[in-house]
C-alpha cells in the first residue's frame, strides 16, 4: 500500500515544510492520507468517483492544480507520459527547493521514473516497500522541461492529452460501434463514458438527434471533448455514470464501457454501466454498446432489457468485440440507481490498461 511507503518517507521531521499548502496528485478513494495535515493538503484528482470520495472525507479536492504549493506528493499513474506530466506540474507548481515525494508501484513503472528523474535532478535514496518505491527531489523551475503534457491528435479534428483512454488513436471498439449505428437515432441521446468525444461526434452526424449529453468521469478526457465538439446540441457532464438520473429520460444511449481497474479485467464495471444505462433510459429507450467479446455482458443486458440483439459490423464479425442493441429497459430492473453505481476505484482509472474510452 502506498501509505506504508509514505509513512516511512515522512517519518523524518524535515520531510515536509511546516507551513504552506501541500499538493497531492492522484490519490484514490482509499489512499491513507492521515500523515498529511488535512488543513494544508490540496488534493488533485480528476476521476469523479475518487474526487467525490475524497471530498466526503473532508479534503479540499480539485481536478486540476490551483496556485502555488510548498510541497507535493505524487502517486504515479501507470501511463508514463501522464506520470511525467504530473511530475512536471509538481516541479513547476512547488516553490523552488520544496520537496516533491513520488510514490509508485513497480508494476506502474516507478523504477523507470526514478531513472528518468535522476538523469535530470538529484533525488533521495528510494525507499522500497510493498512492491513499490518512494523517493523525493527538490522542486526546480524548468527542471523537468519537456515533460509537461503535450496535446495529441488521435484523429483529424480531435485533440487529446496523455493519460486519457486511447489518447493516440480512435479505439477500434468505438469505431466498430459507430459503424453499426443506424442512420437515424432517437432525439434525446446520451454517451455514457464519453471520453474525448469521438463516438459522440459520430452520433451527432446521424439524423434525428436533437440533443446529446456526454457523461464522463475523467475530467481531463471531458475537457478534451469540450475542445473537440462545439455543436450547440451538446451538454457536458463530469460525473460518475452510476449516479446520474434525468427527467425527462433520454431515449437513446451509446457506450463503450470500461472493464479494467487494474491489470486484470473486471466485468463488474461494464455490468454496472449496463445497469446505469437501463436506469437512465426511458422505458422505450435503446442502448447501443460495444464490449470485448470475452466479457459476459449479454446475460446482464437480457436481465435489464426486453430485447437484445447482437449486431454485425459492415466488415463482418469481429473476433475481439461484440456490438449489442438493447431495447426497452425492464421497468422493475431499471429503476434509477438500482445496481447502477460503479465499483469503487482501486487505485487506477478504469480501463487504463489500454483511465478513458473514445
List the helices and strands and how they pair.
Elements: H1 2-9, E1 22-25, E2 41-44, H2 48-56, E3 60-62, E4 71-75, H3 80-93, E5 99-105, H4 110-118, E6 127-129, E7 132-138, H5 172-180, E8 188-192, H6 198-204, E9 211-216, H7 219-228, E10 234-238, E11 252-255, H8 267-280, E12 286-292, H9 298-304, E13 305-311, E14 321-329
Parallel strand pairs: 1-2, 1-4, 2-3, 4-5, 8-9, 8-11, 9-10, 11-12
Antiparallel strand pairs: 5-7, 6-7, 12-14, 13-14
In short:
The protein is an alpha/beta fold and 358 residues long. The chain folds into two domains: 2-138, Vaccinia Virus protein VP39 (Rossmann fold, 3-Layer(aba) Sandwich); 172-329, Vaccinia Virus protein VP39 (Rossmann fold), CATH 3.40.50.
Poorly predicted sequence stretches spanning 5 or more consecutive residues: 337-358
The tally of domains stands at 2
Mean pLDDT: 90
Helical amount among residues, as a percent range?
10-25%
Report on this structure.
This protein is of the alpha/beta class. The protein has 2 domains: 2-138, Rossmann fold; 172-329, Rossmann fold (3-Layer(aba) Sandwich). 24% of the residues lie in helices and 21% in strands. The strands form 2 sheets. The protein has a 7-stranded mixed sheet, with helices on both faces. The chain has a 7-stranded mixed sheet with strand order 10-9-8-11-12-14-13, sandwiched between helices.
Task: Label this structure with key terms.
358 residues, alpha/beta, Rossmann fold, 2 domains, 7-stranded mixed beta sheet, elongated, disordered C terminus
Amino acid at each position: 500500500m502506498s501509505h506504508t511507503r509514505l509513512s516511512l518517507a515522512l517519518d523524518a521531521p524535515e520531510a515536509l515544510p511546516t507551513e504552506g499548502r501541500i499538493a497531492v496528485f492522484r490519490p484514490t478513494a482509499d489512499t491513507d492520507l492521515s500523515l498529511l495535515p488535512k488543513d494544508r493538503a490540496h488534493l488533485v484528482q480528476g476521476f469523479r468517483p475518487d474526487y467525490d470520495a475524497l471530498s466526503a472525507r473532508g479534503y479540499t479536492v480539485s481536478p486540476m492544480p490551483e496556485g502555488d504549493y510548498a510541497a507535493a506528493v505524487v502517486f504515479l499513474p501507470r501511463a508514463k507520459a501522464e506520470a511525467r506530466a504530473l511530475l512536471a506540474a509538481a516541479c513547476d507548481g512547488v516553490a523552488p527547493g520544496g520537496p516533491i515525494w513520488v510514490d509508485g508501484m513497480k508494476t506502474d513503472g516507478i523504477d523507470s521514473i526514478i531513472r528518468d528523474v535522476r538523469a535530470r535532478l538529484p533525488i533521495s535514496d528510494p525507499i522500497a516497500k510493498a512492491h513499490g518505491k518512494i523517493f523525493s527531489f527538490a522542486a526546480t523551475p524548468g527542471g523537468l522541461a519537456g515533460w509537461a503534457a503535450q496535446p495529441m491528435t488521435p484523429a483529424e479534428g480531435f485533440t487529446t492529452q496523455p493519460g486519457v483512454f486511447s489518447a493516440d488513436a480512435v479505439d477500434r471498439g468505438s469505431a466498430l460501434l459507430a459503424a453499426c449505428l443506424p442512420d437515424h437515432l432517437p432525439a434525446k441521446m446520451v454517451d455514457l463514458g464519453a471520453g474525448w468525444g469521438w463516438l459522440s461526434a459520430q452520433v451527432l452526424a446521424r439524423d434525428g438527434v436533437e440533443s446529446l449529453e456526454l457523461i464522463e468521469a475523467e475530467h481531463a478526457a471531458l475537457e478534451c471533448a469540450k475542445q473537440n465538439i462545439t455543436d450547440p446540441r451538446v451538454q457536458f457532464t463530469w460525473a460518475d455514470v452510476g449516479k446520474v438520473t434525468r427527467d425527462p429520460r433520454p431515449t437513446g444511449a451509446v457506450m463503450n464501457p470500461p472493464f479494467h481497474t487494474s491489470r486484470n479485467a473486471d466485468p463488474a464495471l461494464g455490468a454496472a454501466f449496463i445497469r446505469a444505462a437501463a436506469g437512465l433510459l426511458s422505458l422505450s429507450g435503446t442502448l447501443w454498446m460495444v464490449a470485448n467479446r470475452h466479457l459476459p455482458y449479454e446475460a446482464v443486458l437480457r436481465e435489464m432489457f426486453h430485447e437484445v440483439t447482437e449486431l454485425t459490423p459492415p466488415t463482418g464479425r469481429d473476433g475481439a468485440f461484440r456490438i449489442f442493441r438493447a431495447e426497452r429497459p425492464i421497468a422493475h430492473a431499471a429503476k434509477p440507481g438500482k445496481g447502477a453505481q460503479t465499483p469503487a476505484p482501486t487505485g487506477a482509472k478504469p480501463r487504463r490498461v489500454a483511465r478513458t474510452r473514445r
